[in-house]
Design brief:
79 residues, alpha+beta, 4-stranded antiparallel β-sheet, 2 helices, 15% helix
């Protein structure tokens, strides 16, 4: 998990700059490393001020199956 991370689907979340970790190539993460990224489902407007984003990174398979059942996060869909 990386806290204070940019949430691609909700620009209202505050995030820090982590240099090379600021922008993760989601396609490469999925295809090269067989991992998925999970972001919050709660809208930033519903979070305490200031809302800070996060990302959970996990390998596909058992972890992904478990994380897909958690309602507070959703798997990032590569567009």
């Amino acid at each position: 998990m990386i806290d204070d991370f940019k949430v691609p689907s909700d620009t209202g979340y505050v995030h820090d700059s982590y240099g090379t970790l600021e922008y993760i190539n989601m396609t490469e993460l999925k295809n090269k490393y067989n991992m998925n990224a999970y972001f919050p489902t709660t809208l930033s407007s519903k979070e305490p001020h200031p809302p800070t984003g996060f990302v959970v990174l996990a390998p596909n398979g058992n972890y992904g199956n478990i994380l897909n059942k958690v309602k507070l996060i959703k798997e990032y869909e590569i567009g």
